[in-house]
């Protein structure tokens, strides 16, 4: 129940002053415990009003609805660097903190999305692969346009040179992509981005280590979930938006989501090798109730069987092997007030 509802109770029960005050305190404690900590929901876009690409596009009508929701709802939309800095330092964030990201620097970011976000006063980050800009592709922004965005306060992030499948590439190739893109950003923008997004969201344990060693402050995938679920600053979740999954109801579900904080996650590597499927599980941190309502889904088989070991250890019994390419596992838990705790992973199996 929102805090504004608890204040209404006091106004409606003037004769039960102390009972009302106790109820207000209890409700406020419930809100603070549920929303406490450094957590944020990050949404991810690619294209805008490019109907030929529905899997990565959202319509103008969908974008307008998202912006209206953020402006009229109980959200705090913050610049991504500020969100990352506060999480890294252990500071709390406002309940329903939201970050907006856009991958690939398509031209519609400049022509469609930026004017609308600017008019609404909503900060966002663009993750850029440098090769399409260097090649002058008409589908993408130019460096001049990127400079306009950066000068206006838009955060620019690193997305490699060629948008390659990094999890399947050699360490040498990945390092060259990171270094060469840094050089292009330095020359064109006079700075090096500190935030990174994995192309296609594909990741491995070794790749995360390389990104950290390159000096980035955080890195993002494309798996659904809320920052604050797992203490891994180099594979952070984002809710992807497109025409099919960008309706206002799903958008509200995402931006109102809560973390499902866990530890001891297995497997520790998002690169699937052998065995396939791997042993999967996690331990839910203390204070999370209703674990009997928890449900997990694997993209290759749907709802999975869960086995609870003790009060907080959850084992996910995936039966079907992970196919080549990308696969996902999502776990969700609906709270008593209707918000969803959401935890997700993306896995990659090389061809």
CATH class of the largest domain: Alpha Beta
Largest sheet: 6 strands, parallel
Alpha-carbon Rg, integer: 21 Å
Q: Assess the beta-strand content as a share of residues.
A: 15-25%
Number of strands: 19
How would you describe the shape?
Answer: globular
CATH topology of the largest domain: TIM Barrel
Q: How far apart are the termini? A: 48 Å
- Helical content, roughly? 25-40%
N to C succession of SSEs:
HHEEEHEHEHEHHEHEHEEHEEEEEEEEE
Overall pLDDT level: 90
CATH homologous superfamily (4th level) name of the largest domain: Glycoside hydrolase/deacetylase
Class from helix and strand fractions? alpha/beta
Domain count: the total is: 3
CATH 2nd-level architecture of the largest domain = Alpha-Beta Barrel
Low-pLDDT residue intervals, each spanning 5 or more residues: 1-36
The number of helical elements comes to 10
What does this structure look like?
The protein is α/β, with parallel strands linked by helices. 33% of the residues lie in helices and 23% in strands. The strands form five sheets. Strands 1, 4, 5, 6, 7 and 10 form a six-stranded parallel sheet that branches. A five-stranded mixed sheet has the order 11-19-18-14-15, with no helix packed on it. Strands 12-13-17-16 form a four-stranded antiparallel sheet, with no helix packed on it. It has three domains: 31 residues, no CATH class; 224 residues, Glycoside hydrolase/deacetylase (TIM Barrel), CATH 3.20.20.370; 87 residues, Sandwich (Immunoglobulin-like), CATH 2.60.40. It has ten helices and 19 strands.
């Amino acid at each position: 129940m929102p805090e504004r509802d608890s204040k209404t109770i006091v106004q409606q029960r003037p004769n039960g002053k102390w009972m009302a005050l106790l109820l207000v305190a209890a409700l406020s404690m419930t809100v603070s415990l549920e929303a406490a900590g450094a957590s944020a929901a990050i949404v991810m876009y690619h294209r805008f009003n490019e109907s030929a690409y529905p899997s990565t596009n959202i319509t103008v009508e969908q974008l307008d609805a998202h912006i209206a929701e953020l402006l009229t709802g109980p959200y705090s939309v913050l610049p991504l660097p500020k969100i990352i800095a506060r999480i890294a330092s252990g500071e709390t964030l406002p309940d329903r903190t939201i970050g907006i990201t856009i991958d690939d620097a398509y031209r519609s970011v400049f022509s469609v999305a930026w004017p609308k976000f600017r008019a609404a006063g909503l900060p966002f980050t663009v993750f850029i692969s440098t090769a399409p800009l260097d090649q002058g592709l008409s589908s993408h922004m130019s460096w001049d346009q990127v400079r306009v965005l950066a000068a206006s306060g838009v955060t620019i992030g690193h997305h490699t040179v060629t948008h390659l499948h990094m999890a399947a590439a050699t360490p040498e190739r990945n390092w060259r992509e990171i270094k060469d893109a840094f050089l292009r950003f330095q020359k064109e923008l006079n700075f090096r981005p500190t935030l990174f997004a994995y192309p296609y969201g594909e990741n491995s344990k070794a790749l995360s280590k390389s990104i950290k060693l390159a000096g980035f402050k955080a890195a993002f995938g494309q798996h659904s979930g809320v920052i604050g679920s797992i203490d891994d600053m180099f594979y952070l979740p984002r809710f992807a938006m497109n025409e099919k999954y960008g309706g206002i109801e799903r958008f509200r579900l995402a931006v109102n989501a809560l973390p499902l904080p866990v530890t001891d996650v297995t497997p520790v590597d998002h690169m699937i090798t052998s065995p396939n499927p791997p042993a999967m599980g996690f331990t839910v941190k203390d204070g999370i109730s209703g674990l009997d309502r928890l449900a997990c889904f694997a993209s290759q088989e749907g709802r999975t069987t869960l086995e609870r070991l003790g009060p907080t250890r959850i084992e996910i019994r995936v039966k079907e092997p992970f196919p080549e390419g990308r696969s996902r596992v999502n776990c969700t838990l609906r709270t008593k007030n209707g918000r969803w705790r959401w935890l997700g992973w993306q896995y990659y199996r090389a061809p």
